[in-house]
Write a structure and sequence with these properties.
Blueprint (H helix, E strand, L loop, with lengths): L3 E6 L14 E2 L2 E2 H12 L3 E5 L3 H4 L9 E5 L7 H9 L8 E5 L7 H12 L5 E6 L2 E2 L3 E3 L1 H9 L6 H6 L5 E5 L20
Parallel strand pairs: 1-4, 1-6, 4-5, 7-10
Antiparallel strand pairs: 2-3, 6-9, 7-8, 7-9
Length: about 190
């Protein structure tokens, strides 16, 4: 079964000083680039909005299989945004997720991560570029269930790290998996 895509774009972007989802990237925005990649590979993608949702939602392109969800409790952190998306996904579905600050992600990288999960044997699939782990992260339906059940104060990393022995790493030639753009000075790394 193909994973459902989840793009987390609900955060405050406080270190950047403006919504990361709306930052220009190539001929679109950070979010527009990721939406293009995810919808090219996956049948269904959920974009989770929160802070700045009224500014971001109108910029979402209309694509088959693309939907948005609003996390009204985005200030609680990443887990609350992830659980907002997971509430919309049927039981038994695997998920591949990324943060909005990895705009250069290539479709072939996303495909490689999804294919590794679909082969079975792994509960978690993480891409690596030159030995460094990154995004997107794909998780099996069993891990999705664990993420749904985590208490509000937990971190999604808990469920993922608990599956270390069931984690597969996919080496990719895509530096975007490791380029986490948080501050204005980081922008030069992706231009």
């Amino acid at each position: 079964m193909k994973p459902v895509g989840v793009i987390l774009a609900a955060g405050l972007s406080s270190r950047m000083g403006r919504p990361k989802a709306l930052l220009p990237y190539r001929r679109t925005t950070f979010l527009g680039s990721l939406v293009g990649t995810f919808t090219a590979v996956l049948d269904r993608t959920i974009v989770v909005l929160g802070c700045h949702a009224d500014d971001i939602r109108p910029t979402l392109p209309v694509r088959p299989g693309l939907e948005s969800a609003l996390n009204r409790e985005y200030e609680r952190g990443m887990l609350s945004s992830l659980q907002t998306a997971l509430a919309l996904i049927p039981a038994g579905s695997p998920v591949v997720l990324t943060l909005v600050d990895h705009p250069g992600l290539r479709p072939e990288t996303l495909s490689a991560v999804c294919e590794a999960l679909e082969k079975g044997g792994a509960s978690v699939v993480i891409p690596r570029y030159r030995g460094e782990r990154g995004h997107p992260v794909a998780v099996s339906a069993a891990v999705v269930d664990e993420l749904r059940a985590l208490p509000a104060e937990a971190s999604p990393k808990q469920a993922i790290r608990s599956r270390r022995s069931e984690t597969t790493f996919v080496d990719v030639d895509d530096q975007a998996v490791t380029l986490d753009i948080d501050r204005p000075e980081d922008l030069g790394r992706i231009q």
